[in-house]
């Protein structure tokens, strides 16, 4: 497993370097994140301060005095292309009104009805994989039937806060008004990021999200 130093108290793991052939790298990242978390909880490794997953890498922040030990421990792990479902206690429900401007286009691209898109989106738990793009924005990976949709060819200059979108294999919620190229299928009143809240972000990697139809249409 390829490991690179990141200052004196952190290192980056290139998960792709040890992911099984033919596997999705992100699935291996999520599995390795879960393995490290379980090891910390059980006391098998000490000195881990934070673990920050990304699409193909993992940043591990440590107690500076224990970096070598943590590197040795993580280097001995074998990521698998299988993720653990989020614990029921860590699943956050987010109400959605499914009236997004791209909902019909998404249904056409999937070859199913609009109601079927809504059922697919809400009848599964979405795992929070990693954050990026903006404070409070997280990339969510579905635990059910996998479907993918292309980003818009022309991004919108301004997307309203709370917009629920799809891009590639991911779903996500825009935490504030911003440009964006995801396919918008709905909107939520949930506040994804609030600097006056502790913690400011509603979600965190490893959590689960279940989308609930606010209008009860399905």
Give a summary of the structure in a few sentences:
With 218 residues, the protein is an alpha+beta fold.
Structure description:
InterPro entries: CT_C_D, Cyclophilin-like_dom_sf, PxpB. Keywords: ATP-binding, Hydrolase, Nucleotide-binding. The radius of gyration is 18 Å and the shape is globular. With 218 residues, the protein is of the alpha+beta class. The protein folds into two domains: 2-76, Gyrase A, domain 2 (2-Layer Sandwich), CATH 3.30.1360; 92-213, Cyclophilin-like (Cyclophilin, Beta Barrel), CATH 2.40.100.10. The model has no long low-confidence stretch (mean pLDDT 92). Strands 5-13-6-7-10-9-12 form a seven-stranded mixed β-sheet. It has a four-stranded antiparallel β-sheet with strand order 1-2-4-3, with helices on one face. A two-stranded antiparallel ribbon has the order 8-11. 20% of the residues lie in helices and 30% in strands. β3 and β4 (57-62) form a beta hairpin.
Task: Describe the SSE topology.
Layout (H helix, E strand, L loop, with lengths): L1 E4 L4 E5 L10 H18 L5 E6 L3 E6 L4 H9 L15 E6 L6 H8 L3 H9 L3 E6 L6 E5 L13 E4 L3 E5 L2 E4 L4 E3 L2 E5 L20 E6 L5
Parallel strand pairs: 5-13
Antiparallel strand pairs: 1-2, 2-4, 3-4, 6-7, 6-13, 7-10, 8-11, 9-10, 9-12
Keywords: ATP-binding, Hydrolase, Nucleotide-binding
Pfam families: CT_C_D
Protein name: Carboxyltransferase domain-containing protein
């Amino acid at each position: 497993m390829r490991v690179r130093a990141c200052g004196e108290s952190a290192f980056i793991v290139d998960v792709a370097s040890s992911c099984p052939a033919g596997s999705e790298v992100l699935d291996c990242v999520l599995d390795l994140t879960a393995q490290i978390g379980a090891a910390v909880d059980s006391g098998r490794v000490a000195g881990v301060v934070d673990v920050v997953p990304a699409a193909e890498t993992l940043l591990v922040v440590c107690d500076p005095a224990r970096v070598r030990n943590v590197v040795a421990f993580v280097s001995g792990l074998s990521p698998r292309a299988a993720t653990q479902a989020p614990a029921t206690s860590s699943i956050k429900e987010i109400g959605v009104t499914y009236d997004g401007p791209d909902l019909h286009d998404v249904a056409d691209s999937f070859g199913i009805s609009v109601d079927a898109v809504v059922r697919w989106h809400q009848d599964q738990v979405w795992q929070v994989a990693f954050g990026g793009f903006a404070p409070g924005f997280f990339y969510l990976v579905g635990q059910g039937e996998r479907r993918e949709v292309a980003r818009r060819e022309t991004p919108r200059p301004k997307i309203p806060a709370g917009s629920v979108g799809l891009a590639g294999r991911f779903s996500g919620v825009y935490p504030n008004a911003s440009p964006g190229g995801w396919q918008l299928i709905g909107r939520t009143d949930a506040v994804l990021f609030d600097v006056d809240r502790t913690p400011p972000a509603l979600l965190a990697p490893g959590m689960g999200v279940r989308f609930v139809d606010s209008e009860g249409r399905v």
